[in-house]
Write a structure and sequence with these properties.
mainly alpha; two-stranded antiparallel sheet; 10 helices; 2 strands; transmembrane helix; ABC2_TM; Transport permease protein; transport
């Protein structure tokens, strides 16, 4: 028939195969409908999400990095003047040296939570969450990208706070156990990043997120032994403090600088390090299941 389109011959003289043979489910030059094209880890997509999140907080670095450093330095000055007079020593060091590692860890955790809790929540409120859900990223890759960016911000804040504290007289940040500083710093940042991600999944407006920050994160941070050792507390309150995961992050982080902490000896610190790893694994599993279910995201 003259009205039928004939396939064009290829360079070898044979006609080209049609783009799709038969129905949509048959094999052709394109993959079957519904069959994933990207298998394994989408490295390009994961890296793109990570860079997007990092650039987001770097655009306002005055607010996301430098402001926390100034605020934490003010905490150091106020508590050192109020509680550190007369050469007061805690764990064998002067009070500013004792409180400085705890303030660094606290700033890292709070900013990690702030970063990860903003991503999905802002998308839900502004209607741009489709930009996170439509790309070919699995739930694990989405979680990894957001958490990694939050940990990056936490590390940047921690380094900035440490540099600011070196300007304060009497502060000594020489590390006794570098592995503890790195491990507990990263574990604390990852823990709050996962908590922030779960908070952003649950929250429907910024007030909900602020409630978690003010009534959960801030109290747990302040009551975690940042400014004191729990040995000074009553037995009941010591038990409550030991049930607080923030306590192990801050005390373990302090152990990396001072070589001692109120967790206990080196064996107890190592046990706390493994305990935080297991706890973060549990949080990651919960966050993954929430993303997988699409609860408050896709409905």
């Amino acid at each position: 028939m003259a009205d039928q389109v004939q396939p064009m011959p290829s360079a070898s003289g044979q006609p080209d195969a049609p783009l799709v043979e038969g129905d949509a489910g048959s094999k052709g030059r394109f993959p079957e409908r519904g069959k994933p094209v990207i298998t394994g880890i989408n490295r390009v997509g994961l890296w793109s999400l990570y860079i997007k999140e990092v650039r987001r907080f770097l655009k306002v670095q005055t607010q996301t990095i430098w402001a926390p450093a100034v605020t934490t330095l003010l905490f150091l000055v106020i508590f050192s003047v109020a509680l550190g007079r007369g050469g007061r020593e805690v764990l064998g060091v002067n009070f500013p040296t004792f409180v400085a590692p705890g303030l660094i860890a606290m700033a890292m955790m709070q900013n990690s939570f702030a970063n990860s809790s903003f991503s999905l929540l802002s998308g839900k409120i502004q209607g741009t969450i489709i930009d996170l859900l439509m790309p070919p990223l699995s739930e694990g890759e989405l979680m990894t990208g957001i958490v990694a960016a939050a940990v990056t911000r936490a590390v940047a804040v921690g380094c900035t706070v440490a540099l600011a504290m070196l300007l304060y007289p009497g502060v000594n940040l020489a590390m006794a156990h570098a592995w503890a500083v790195i491990w507990f710093g990263l574990m604390g940042a990852a823990m709050l990043a996962l908590l922030g991600l779960m908070a952003s999944i649950w929250a429907e407006k910024f007030d909900h997120n602020a409630a978690v920050t003010n009534f959960v994160v801030a109290p747990l941070s302040m009551l975690s032994g940042t400014f004191y050792v729990i040995e000074n507390l009553h037995g009941v309150f010591q038990a409550i403090s030991r049930a607080n995961p923030f306590f192990y992050v801050i005390s373990g982080f302090r152990y990396g600088f001072l070589g001692q902490s109120d967790i206990g000896d080196a064996a107890h610190v190592a046990a706390a390090a493994l305990g935080l790893l297991a706890f973060n694994g549990l949080l990651a599993l919960i966050a993954y299941r929430l993303l997988k279910s699409g609860w408050k995201i896709k409905n």
